[in-house]
Specification:
The structure is a single chain. The chain is α+β, with helices and mostly antiparallel strands. The chain folds into 2 domains: about 110 residues, D-amino Acid Aminotransferase, Chain A, domain 1 (2-Layer Sandwich); about 160 residues, D-amino Acid Aminotransferase, subunit A, domain 2 (D-amino Acid Aminotransferase, Chain A, domain 2), CATH 3.20.10.10. The chain contains 8 helices and 16 strands. Strands 7, 8, 9, 10, 11, 12, 13, 14, 15 and 16 form a 10-stranded mixed β-sheet that branches. A hairpin with a 2-residue loop joins strand 3 and strand 4. It starts with a strand and ends with a helix.
């Protein structure tokens, strides 16, 4: 199911102009929302972040939360999927190609609703391998921009190396994965890089941190060095579609005892309970 500029249609019927600035410049922002049992999880937080990203690139997104909620819920109903993945994209619209903003062009609003393609459950039992890569991204990673070339190149590099995720490292510090947030457990404390321009402020990240605090797990939002990462007792990733995923190797270096750890198991059970 697709939504394009106020109209719902079949995904196969949804097309945008070749002169859309999202297509030509990556001039836009996006969100991904998980749907559980026909309920969009943390919808307000996702819409708030969408509007914040839009404002950060001077994109005048005027739809209210209530309007987006109506669109999203109608899309879910029309799709017929109980468990789904929603993709929303805003661009600066259609105009002749020019680096300068168009004087007047309505935004292009796109939404798709697809049945969720779940990760293999065995990965949660065994844990996943990861690799590190140089962080070559720009300095506004807090904006959920359409410009994802470093991310997709890094993800493909991980895939070709037989790894689940690529972790961005710069100046000896790890920031996040190509499409995930990183969390590290050392001596019972849950560490994760602080919010700022070097990482995306993850919606699932915040949800998991709140679950940790509510269950008396100490949280430290502070820089995570590569040395800390490799010396951790546990490492896991968080994200909208992967939820919480345990990591057992980084660059073939074993994390802890090489198995998903106690804090991961505790938090994932709490996460499942929170969405039921």
């Amino acid at each position: 199911m697709a939504y394009l500029n106020s109209e719902f249609m079949k995904l196969s019927e949804a097309f945008v102009s070749v002169e859309d600035r999202g297509f030509q410049f990556g001039d836009g922002v996006y969100e991904v929302i998980r749907v559980y049992d026909k309920t969009p999880h943390l919808l307000r937080e996702h819409v708030d972040r969408l509007k914040l990203s839009a404002a950060s690139i001077q994109l005048d997104e005027r739809l209210s939360y209530e309007e987006w909620e109506r669109i999203v819920r109608e899309g879910i109903d029309r799709s017929g999927y109980a468990d789904a993945k929603i993709y929303i994209q805003l661009t600066r619209g259609v105009s002749p190609r020019d680096h300068r903003f168009p004087v007047s062009a309505p935004l292009t609003r796109v939404m798709t609703v697809r049945e969720i393609d779940l990760e293999d459950p065995q990965l949660r039992e065994s844990g996943v391998p990861t690799i590190t890569v140089d962080d070559i991204r720009w300095n506004r990673c807090d904006i959920k921009s359409l410009n994802l070339l470093p991310n997709i190149l890094s993800k493909q590099h991980a895939t070709q190396a037989g790894a689940f995720e690529a972790l961005f490292v710069r100046d000896g510090f790890v920031f996040e994965g190509s499409s995930s947030t990183i969390m590290v457990v050392r001596h019972g404390v849950l560490h994760t890089p602080p919010e700022g321009p070097r990482i995306l402020s993850g919606i699932t990240r915040d949800w998991v941190l709140n679950l940790a605090r509510a269950n008396e797990i100490t949280v430290a939002e502070e820089p995570v060095s590569l040395e800390m990462l490799l010396g951790a007792q546990e490492v896991f990733l968080t994200g909208t579609t992967i939820e919480i995923m345990p990591v057992v190797t980084v660059d073939e270096h074993r994390i802890g005892d090489g198995k998903p750890g106690e804090i991961y198991h505790r938090l994932y059970q709490k996460f499942l309970a929170s969405i039921s």
